[in-house]
Amino acid sequence: MASVLLALAPGPDNIFVLTQSAMHGKASGFVVTLGLCTGLLVHTTAVAFGVAVIFQASALAFTVLKLAGAGYLLYLAWQAFRASATAIKAGANGRLKFGKLYQRGIIMNVTNPKVSIFFLAFLPQFADPARGALTLQLICLGGVFIAATVVVFGGIAWMAGSLGQWLIKNEKAQTIMNRVAGAVFVGLALKLATTSR
Fold first, then answer.
1. Helix (H, G, I), strand (E, B), or coil: what is residue 118?
2. What would the pLDDT profile of 87-111 be if each residue is shown by its tens digit?
3. Alpha helices of 50-133 — where are they, by DSSP H?
């Protein structure tokens, strides 16, 4: 229940799924979701084996990772602002290549140090040393969170993708959506760059 509610809470990842699904379609939104969830696997593993503690303890590591994430988002914003209306139709079947979208999802999630610190704070609350190995419990709990994320973000991708089918037929709407996506990426980059531990 906690995982579902947290996945529903507005944040960079579900906004990212929303914009990518609206621009590139439902299937692309699902691919971005899988990329984001692959990033969650990285965070789950990091917490389970204690690596995330470094980001909580080291201001430098936290800053480097968040600036890398903000830089990537600014790069995506630059691409969106430069894109023409027909750019949404680029790639196979009028979509960007799935590999590119999957990669965007992974980078978006992995370079957000807040996710790692969130996992470090959230997952251990549900682990109990009396019930066995903590590492295995944390991996299982991360899996539950990822499953909830797939369901929630998949729903967002499906709904936003329906809007995207209309956008593909409307060049003016495509241009507006590119600009909106660029503005969203800039906003997410600023939010990430100004977050503190």
1. helix
2. 444 444 445 689 999 998 999 888 8
3. 52-57, 59-82, 98-110, 113-122
Instruction: Say if residues 69 and 188 touch (Cβ distance below 8 Å).
Output: no
Q: What span, in angstroms and rounded, lies between the C-alpha atoms of 13 and 115? A: 10
Nearest to 125 by CA among 113, 137, 133: 137
Counting Cβ atoms within 10 Å, is residue 88 exposed (0-12), middle (13-18) or buried (19+)? buried
Mean pLDDT of 163-183: 72
Contact 164, 23 (CB under 8 A): yes
- Provide the residue ranges of all domains of the chain, joining segments of one domain with +: 13-193
- Cα–Cα–Cα angle for 42, 149, 28, nearest 5°? 90
Instruction: Write down the pTM of the prediction.
Output: 0.68
Check whether 42 has a pLDDT greater than 80: yes
